[in-house]
Hints:
Elements: H1 2-18, H2 21-45, E1 48-53, E2 57-58, E3 62-72, E4 78-86, E5 96-103, E6 107-117, E7 121-125, E8 128-133, E9 140-146, E10 149-153, E11 169-175, E12 187-192, H3 204-210, E13 214-218, E14 221-223, E15 225-230, H4 242-262, E16 266-271, E17 284-289, H5 292-304, H6 313-318, H7 320-323, E18 329-334, H8 339-350, E19 354-359, H9 366-375, E20 379-382
Parallel strand pairs: 2-10, 15-16, 15-18, 18-19, 19-20
Antiparallel strand pairs: 1-3, 3-6, 4-5, 4-8, 7-10, 8-9, 11-14, 12-13, 16-17
Amino acid sequence: MPNLMVFLLGVIALAAFFRFDFIFYVVYIFFFVYLLSRAWIDAVLKRIVCERTYEGRALNGEKVPVTLTVTNRSWLPIPYLRVHESVPARLKTPNFERAVLSMSPRSSATMHYELDCRHRGLYLLGPMTIEAGDLFGIYSEERQVIHKHNIAVYPRIVSLTDLSLPAQTPYGTIRRKQSLMEDPSRLLGVRPYMDGDSLRHIHWKMTASSGQLQTKRFEPAISVEAQIYLNLNRADYSVQRLATASELAIETAASFAAVLTQQRQTVGISSNGSDPLVDEDSAINLRPNRGAAQLTAILDVLARIELNEQVPFEVILREARLQLRWGGTGVVVTPHATDELVSILLLLKRSGLNIILILVDPQASFAAIKRRMEQAGIETFEVWQESDLNVWR
Length: 393
């Protein structure tokens, strides 16, 4: 537009010099059309409403549909409207969505595209901009109509159908073949009364029908209260496996949280990773709880979490005794086991907690670490790649 104005001023100067009245009439008409187009576009842009509709959470590998709705609420048509939506490159290729529209008064138009959510993380959609212009292309104006919105892609969750965590709480929902105590809420059947059976467990209806004393049989079960301790200290990972091992650690933590929630157990998570939505220097700590809402909160954190160097992992572990009751289970997911880490785990074991150690980037002989930890009664596993999770399948 500045070049066009220079050209017009030059034309006016020539017309004035050679006294061409016709050129003045053309310039007057052009300026009138220009002012009319500008007022038209300004009035239309004030009455355009745009919306972005999508699901703000996505499972790993899921395709999320996004709908963009552009509504012209004015009584004026829009001859030319260009819509441009910015999209993260890891969710869509190419990383934009464009469309050119022509809208009548009081009408709407929709655009659809999909996000291919294959990479864990917190992503920003947008901004969305529109550019409206007149029919002759004399005047156009661009505005940002929708700001950035978040979408959280959850880490990959592996189905751990054979997960069996140690616990010392006798009543719960996880079936066990052997147990020192039976859960009176889980009736298995009846059997003939034997000396020593509690009179409170006599099944009076079966006794009346059979004519012999019958006592109730209960199914042994346990309850697990688990806290996942995830080490995302950048300095603890080897440079070669920094990205691979850290993502594998997050995937392992998510899989444990999912299967424990499926089993209706209480589970929480603590980590020294950083959450971009909170203060970088503060550790992440979700106390054990149960239910779908707790799993959603854990997966939200694991979708956003990033490597950090502010909080040593040993600081997180020292607070484990304050988060778990006696007999609780601590699932420790860390790249490797240092001497200081081993000392803290032995202390937690002696304080009455059950510890499971999972190493995703061991920097020493794993067999030696495993022997040392199992002598103290701590189960130790190496998860070097995703297929190593098959031990719990």
